[in-house]
Specification:
Rossmann fold, binds cytidine-5'-triphosphate, 19 strands, 2 domains, about 25% strand
Length: about 400
């Protein structure tokens, strides 16, 4: 976080007292913090506290001519490397979800290109309310990252999910979202993720069960390790990790074209995508009508993206994935050699395993006979362990 600009938005909730501590924790990590208070936040903690802790005058109004003359709200939105809203009240999440711009903090959230991260804090019934949950779903879908809430004792004397995370936890998570200094600092990496869709006619396609969760977790772990990450993703229902650039594609051919376009200057390619191996030979330009009892779909091989990149000049360090139902190690080692990869992460697939699950287990193999078994764990943890192995085996920056 050293030298990074964090715009800390404080909204109206009792947890605002923890935000004073958060300014300190962000500062400890080297961030420059600009506090923006909503009108409701001012009812809980005074601007003087935040000003003293951040060393900057607090901003709280769109209509303050002196502050606007020093740094207008659009400039402030551009200044931010990260917009962190802690606490984020139910009311503020609702206002953000509908795109209001009638106070400074909402306006900054609309005007910024930086990742927006919110740490919700509210009574557990307010958090569970369908309206709040719908607002949260909208925000997550748009790429807003939520930190928490935690479960526990609440200021109202009740118990449940709705507590704001502790300041130290928020600072740590914000730090990793910003992609602090790590083994991949200053290096560009590509990650492919999700399924591809191979069209049959304008309304039908051939695809597979990949959810994209492993690939998105790998993209997030690489970002946390300092990389500039380009995520090339087939259609999935996942939010793009903060700080990651995502290019959406549909077919294997489109994925190949985007990989080739983004490849120059890349240090690593991690191919987690479940690329269709076959596509229909011809795509009907009108919807195919059901006329016969049987219909045969003729398929042809798609181009292997990994093998194509592996055969090119100036190839990056290439990590493939293998999904196998049996003889996992043997098939994966064979794939590593045959596709000329540097590393392969294999998992066993089948009923209830890997696809669309929250956790997974990986067997990682690399050239020269090396191997590591990564035990069953949530995909985010596995991704971090895989990224550590990639960092250990990928040639250092020249
Ligand atoms: N892959 C790719 N381009 C394709 C197909 C696969 O880049 N057209 C990549 C995947 O992203 C993954 C790896 O290759 O990293 C998977 O290898 P693949 O041989 O396609 O696996 P399977 O389809 O499971 O192979 P097999 O038919 O041997 O079981």
């Amino acid at each position: 976080m050293r030298g990074k600009h964090v715009l800390l938005g404080v909204t109206g909730g009792i947890a605002a007292y923890k935000s004073a501590e958060l300014v300190r924790r962000l500062g400890d990590r080297g961030a420059e913090v600009q506090v923006v208070l909503t009108a409701a936040a001012r009812e809980f903690v005074g601007a003087t506290t935040f000003q003293a802790l951040s060393g900057r005058p607090v901003r709280d109004s769109l209509w303050d001519p002196a502050a606007e003359a020093a740094m207008g709200h659009i400039e402030l939105a551009r200044w931010a490397d990260l917009v962190l809203i802690a606490p984020a009240s139910a009311d503020f999440l609702a206002r953000l979800a509908v795109g209001r711009a009638d106070d400074l903090l909402c306006t900054l959230c609309l005007a910024t290109a930086a990742p927006v991260v919110a740490a919700p804090a509210m009574n557990h019934q307010m958090w569970a309310n369908a309206a709040t949950q719908a607002n949260v779903a909208t925000l997550v879908q748009r790429g807003v990252r939520l930190l928490g809430p935690a479960v526990g004792d609440q200021a109202c004397g009740e118990q449940g999910p709705g507590r704001m995370l502790e300041a130290a936890e928020i600072a740590e998570l914000a730090d990793s979202l910003l992609g602090g200094v790590g083994p991949f600092s200053g290096r560009r990496v590509l990650v492919t993720a999700g399924p591809t869709r191979e069209p049959i006619d304008p309304v039908r396609f051939v695809s597979n069960r990949s959810s994209g969760k492993m690939g998105y977790a790998v993209a997030q772990a690489l970002r946390a390790a300092g990389a500039e990450v380009v995520l090339i993703s087939g259609p999935v229902a996942l939010p793009v990790p903060a700080g990651v650039r995502c290019v959406g594609v549909e077919s294997a051919a489109q994925m190949l074209a985007v990989v080739q376009r983004e490849l120059p200057g890349c240090a690593v390619l991690v191919a987690t995508a479940a690329v269709a191996d076959y596509r229909p030979v011809s795509v009907a330009d009108r919807k195919i009508k059901k006329k016969t009892e049987q219909l045969t779909l003729e398929l042809t091989r798609t181009t292997d993206i990994l093998a194509t990149v592996a055969a090119g000049a100036n190839r990056p360090f290439i990590v493939g994935f293998a999904a196998e139902t049996d003889a996992v190690e043997q098939h994966a080692r064979d794939k590593l050699e045959r596709k000329n990869l540097d590393m392969i992460a294999a998992n066993e697939v089948g009923t209830g395993k890997a696809f669309d699950c929250e956790d997974n287990a990986l067997l990682v193999l690399w050239r020269g006979g090396g191997r590591a078994e990564l035990a069953r764990a949530p995909k985010a943890e596995l991704a971090a362990a895989l990224v550590a192995l990639i960092a250990a085996h990928c040639p250092a920056k020249s």
